Structures are given as structure tokens and as C-alpha cells.
Amino acid sequence: MATMSFKTISLSSSITTTNAARLGELTFSTIPKIIETPAAMLYVRSGVVPDVTYDLIPDNVTRLFEIPLGSLVDSMKNLEHTGSYGSFARITDPIYCPFHDSLVELRPGGSGNLYSSVWTKAGRQELNIERFKKLIKLVQPSVYESMFDGDTPIDKTTEKRLVKDRERSRRFLESSLGDKTILSNAIIPLVGGQDKRHRQIYLNDILSHISNNENNILGVSFEGFHSYGPSTENADLNSLKPIIEETKTKLIDYKNILFTMPLLWRPDNVIHGIDLGLDLFSGAYVAHISDRLIILSFLYNDKMSSNTLGAEYNINSKQYANGKQSLVVDCGCYTCKNYTQAYVYHLIQTKELLSRTLITIHNLYHYHGFFQQIRENLKANTWNDYRIMILKQYAIEQEKKE
Question: Which residues does the UniProt record annotate as the domain tRNA-guanine(15) transglycosylase-like (predicted)?
Fold first, then answer.
């Protein structure tokens, strides 16, 4: 595996005293590439970006591929005859492998003392620690998340379940960290459900591992808060704030440790996540909304004209059947430069696959352009004004839905 490193960049005191927002840089030993954070990853399903070939990915997209391990389990035999997943799929950019897929809801009962499960198109797949380590060695990701339990649904988790969650996750982590062949660039999952006490017990249990392996641990992921899937689009981050802040306080001595959390990151929640000091975000939200024919249309920079479309809209509506404007006025993506709302609507009605491609191209451009503006406003000390602008648009959107 290539060596990766992460470092934070100081911001002005006027930002850091109001929230934990921060800038950072990811660097790689084998390629001359720097990824600035906060950043969204590029979500990949079954080896490809949903509905888009690599040559059509907009230039402003962060090229850090997010490839969940569950989507690779069925390919283990094929990977035995290739150098790595990157060479198998012809991906030259860095790859991050989270243990679970942000888009796939987890079902209860998928963990045992010696295994944890991922969900694939073929159903549940058990991974014991040896099979997990073999998969990591075959894939050779730039960074990966350690195996964990995490089966802690908020309304069904007992004290006994939380204890098992901690014990199993610690056992899986210790086994991964004990294998020097996969030791580099690990993301450590922090579990314990939504129980503050159990989460702090688990963190105390593994602090020595973080300290002893600091050069090989890239970051931590806040896990066990939810069961993944579509419902996480509406996650209430305010309810998680005390737990996340206390955890970060205990990790304050580790200045250059990356923070991430799996979620379908709706733009208003992205703002809340950055206020909590998160650095890396799943890019699965783009695939999620594109599947539903939703167009991102919120204003994310001052070069965009005001519009009446709201923060987002469904292009599969008759009101756009004769729409002569682009999906979003003043958008610089390939779709908006070349096609109208009416044309995309027509493609949907005739069941042309091109409709999904054009929608995804726009949403990728819009979503990653949003993250570019986040970084620019953090650098320019205009974060507070920017965050208010985004949150106001989504507050109006939520009022419409109610």
C-alpha cells in the first residue's frame, strides 16, 4: 500500500472559536497528488461511477474513489489473478474502502463473535477476520476502514448488545493492527451506538492502539449511530454533537488525525458535519438523488443567478416538459452547457439511459463545486456567512415539504 498522510491547516481564530471547522491536506507517497479537505469522495458502485464513464467525470470532482468492501466481496476470485483492484478496474487514483456501503441499509443480526457481515447484490456475506484481511490484501486500497460490529439500532439496542458491539469491534481491530501486511493507512471505527458511556469506554479501550500505531492510522470514523441506507439523508446531527465533541476532546493530542462518518450527506448536513470538524465525506448522496431523478439546484457560489427552483427539484415533472433553460442557470457542467430541461425530461419519458448519465454529471459537478466553495470560504474567513446561506436554502426546502 502507498503511504498516506494527513495534516490540518490552521484557520483564523474567528472561525475556530465558533465551531470546529478546519482545513486539511491528504498526500500520497506514490503519486504527486494533494487532496484538500473538507472533501467529498467519488462513490463507485460495482467498479464504476453510477451511470457515468470515467472520461465524463467533471474536472472539479475530487478523485478519491469510495469503494465499499461489500461491493468487492463477490470479486475475490477474480482479484486473485490481478495485481490489485486498481489495476483490475483501471483506476489510477487513490481508493478508500469503507467497511459498509452508505447507500445499503444494514439488517440486524449480521455479526457474531468471529465475523461481521456486509450486504451485496447476492445478499449477506459473512467476513471473518482472515477473510477480511485477505480481501484487503487483494484490493490493496490506499486507505481502508477496519472491520467492526456496529449492529446497534437506536430503538433495539440493549446493554448486552452494546457490550458485544464493543468487544467484537475491539477484537477485530486488534487483529487488523497485528497484521503488518495491512497495517498502513487504517481508518479506525469508533462504535458504541448512541450510548455516550459505551462509546467512551470503547475509545478508552483502544486509545493505546491509536497511540502505538499513530504512523499507520490515518483517521477515525464515527460508526454505530445508524443502520445506513436512505434514511440517513435526514439524520439529526445535532443529537450526535455532544458525543462527537467529547470523543474529539479525548483525541486532541492527535492533531493530524482525519475524521469521517458514513452518511448520505445532504448539503445542509454537510454544513453541520464541517461545524463538527469532519474532514472526509461519503459521495454516495449524488448516486442516491440521481437514482430518484433529483437535480441539485441550490446556490453555492455568488456567480450563480437566483432561481425559483429551490435547493433541489425533480426533473421528472410535467412542468419541465417544455423547459427551455438548462437544468440550472449559470451552471458550468457539460449537461447544462449542452442540454435543456425539456430534453432531459424527454429522455426520462422514453426510458433512455442517457437521462441518468446527464443528471449524474450535473449533480457530481454541483456537489463537488459546493465542496470547493466550502474550502474557499474557510480560507477566506467567510465561513459563517456561507454556512448561513446554505442552511437558509434548505430550511426553506424543508418548509415546502411540510
Answer: 20-394
Q: Mind listing the pLDDT tens digit for each residue in 52-87?
A: 998 999 999 999 999 999 888 888 888 888 878 888
- Round to whole Å and give the CA distance between 209 and 190: 13
End-to-end CA distance of the chain: 49
**Cell digits for 19?**
465551531
294-296 and 280-281 as β-strands: parallel, antiparallel, unpaired? unpaired
Residue 11 is placed in which grid cell? 484557520
Per domain, the residue ranges of the chain are 4-290, 293-395
Per-residue confidence (pLDDT) for residue 2, from 0 to 100: 62
- At 224 the pLDDT is 93
Write down the pTM of the prediction: 0.95
Predicted local confidence at residue 16, as pLDDT:
47
Q: Taking residues 91-106, report their average pLDDT.
A: 92
Instruction: State what percent of residues in the chain have pLDDT above 90.
Output: 72
Q: What is the pLDDT of residue 17?
A: 44
Arithmetic mean of pLDDT, 331-339 = 97
Report the pLDDT value the prediction gives residue 33, as an integer from 0 to 100: 82
DSSP result, 296-351: E----STTSPP-SS-SEEESSSGGGTT--S-SSTT--SHHHHH--HHHHHHHHHTT
| Residue that is written with C-alpha cell 439524520 in the block | 235
Question: What's the CA angle centered on 190, arms 188 and 193, to 5 degrees?
Answer: 155
The C-alpha cell 448522496 sits at 285
Contact 165, 124 (CB under 8 A): no
Q: Which long-range contacts (CB under 8 A, 24 or more apart) does 327-330 make?
A: 327/295, 327/297, 327/359, 327/362, 328/295, 328/296, 328/297, 328/304, 328/362, 328/366, 329/304, 329/305, 330/303, 330/304, 330/305
From 230, 212, 158, 217, select the one nearest 182 (Cα to Cα): 217
Q: Which helix (H) or strand (E) holds 173?
A: helix 159-177
Strand 312-314 to 65-66 pairing: unpaired
Report the pLDDT value the prediction gives residue 179, as an integer from 0 to 100. 85
Helical (H) or strand (E) element with 97: strand 95-97
For the packed helices 383-401 and 354-379, what is the interaxial angle rounded to 10 degrees?
Answer: 140
DSSP 365: H
